């Protein structure tokens, strides 16, 4: 299969480009497209055959459910079963945006998209290209991240092609994504809301509207209702060790763990504040400043993929205090790590 890459204006997407991509969706094909979080690999959520192509292209386990994307609040009734007025009011506050909510599924949504579950994860993206594609296709679009399963999610069309070139018919290139990580996922169907995956919207910003979060049910680890809950995700090719502690202690611990700094192949995912403290024989990649946490989050997957290009044999990553948006950063780093140690 030849993958066609079409440039598209991320602010005012060209109708001809969107129409061409939408035609593929309507024909039961897949299209990779930008959202404000990461690039998604989309297909018609109501078409079993189309959804199956997503899993095949990504090598994704069939029990890992997908997020269904809609373009308006009115579309919610197409994919969810009798959402309550309270829930509709809540999602209307955050949509379009990087928030995914779990609902009871409607009959229209493919059970392949929900991994056989009677629930469906839904969001309305805030990216003009994504919204235009959903509207032009007239279909709710099931779309996980547009990467091989387990790899760092793509934040540019280049990243999509690194993993899926020749596996999907089209990529819409709308430049780099804004947040750089996947959406926040919550379940508000029970007595207390449950945070299933941290994302660009910190849980502390949600609690004033929906209350304090409860703990996920234990069975969700084996039968997840949302992406990112069960399998290894976001991992670069080289094994990554996450080192926790205070910045100075982390640097000393990484240097100690790495051993002889002259042996080569040692990658360090650090910050601007600690970059110069590592031997220049290390392959140092900075996430940015600890004083700009959203910037670090946005750079995470780009930096992890950079280590693949640089050909390191092992990676050591600095941990940060798990407060605010750093909870999301640490969630992704923990899932990418093969080992976590304290300094």
Any key phrases for this structure?
343 residues; alpha/beta; Rossmann fold; 8-stranded mixed β-sheet; 5-stranded parallel β-sheet; 15 strands
Could you explain the architecture of this structure?
This protein has 343 residues and is α/β, with parallel strands linked by helices. It has helices at residues 15-26, 48-58, 76-79, 85-94, 128-137, 157-164, 203-210, 247-258, 293-310, 326-336, and strands at 4-7, 31-34, 39-44, 67-69, 99-104, 119-123, 141-142, 170-173, 184-187, 194-197, 240-244, 266-270, 283-286, 314-318, 339-342. 50% of the residues are buried. The chain folds into 2 domains: 4-221, DHBP synthase (Alpha-Beta Complex), CATH 3.90.870.10; 240-342, Threonylcarbamoyl-AMP synthase, C-terminal domain (Rossmann fold, 3-Layer(aba) Sandwich), CATH 3.40.50.11030. It is globular and about 60 Å long. The model has no long low-confidence stretch (mean pLDDT 94).
Low-confidence stretches: none
How are the strands ordered across the major sheet?
2-3-7-4-6-5-9-10
Largest sheet: 8 strands, mixed
Helix content: 25-40%
């Amino acid at each position: 299969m030849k993958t066609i890459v079409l440039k598209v204006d991320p602010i005012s997407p060209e109708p001809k480009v969107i129409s061409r991509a939408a035609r593929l969706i309507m024909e039961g094909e897949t299209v990779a497209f930008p959202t404000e979080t990461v690039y998604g690999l989309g297909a018609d959520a109501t078409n079993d055959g189309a959804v199956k192509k997503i899993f095949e292209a990504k090598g994704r386990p069939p029990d890992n459910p997908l997020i269904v994307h809609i373009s308006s609040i009115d579309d919610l009734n197409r994919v969810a079963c009798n959402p309550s007025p309270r829930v509709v009011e809540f999602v209307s506050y955050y949509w379009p945006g990087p928030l995914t909510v779990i609902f009871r599924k409607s009959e229209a949504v493919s059970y392949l998209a929900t991994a056989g579950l009677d629930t469906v994860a839904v969001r309305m993206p805030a990216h003009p290209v994504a919204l235009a594609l959903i509207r032009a296709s007239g279909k709710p679009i099931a779309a996980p991240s547009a990467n091989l399963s387990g790899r760092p999610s793509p934040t540019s069309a280049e990243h999509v092609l690194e993993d899926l070139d020749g596996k999907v018919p089209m990529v819409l290139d709308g430049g780099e994504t804004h947040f750089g990580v996947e959406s926040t996922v919550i379940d508000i169907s029970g007595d207390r809301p449950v945070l299933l995956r941290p994302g660009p919207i910190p849980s502390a910003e949600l609690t004033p509207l929906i209350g304090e979060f409860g703990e996920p049910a234990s069975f969700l680890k084996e039968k997840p209702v949302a992406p990112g809950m069960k399998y290894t995700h976001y991992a670069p090719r080289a094994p990554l060790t996450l080192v926790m502690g205070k910045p100075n202690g982390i640097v000393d611990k990484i240097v100690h763990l790495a051993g002889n700094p002259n042996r080569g192949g040692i990658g360090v995912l650090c910050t601007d504040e600690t970059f110069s403290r590592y031997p220049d024989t290390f392959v140092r990649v900075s996430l940015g400043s600890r004083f700009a946490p959203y910037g670090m989050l946005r750079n995470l997957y780009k930096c992890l993929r950079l280590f693949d290009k640089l050909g390191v044999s092992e990676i050591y990553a600095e941990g940060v205090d798990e407060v605010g948006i750093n909870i999301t950063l640490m969630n992704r780093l923990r899932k990418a790590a093969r080992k976590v140690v304290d300094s």
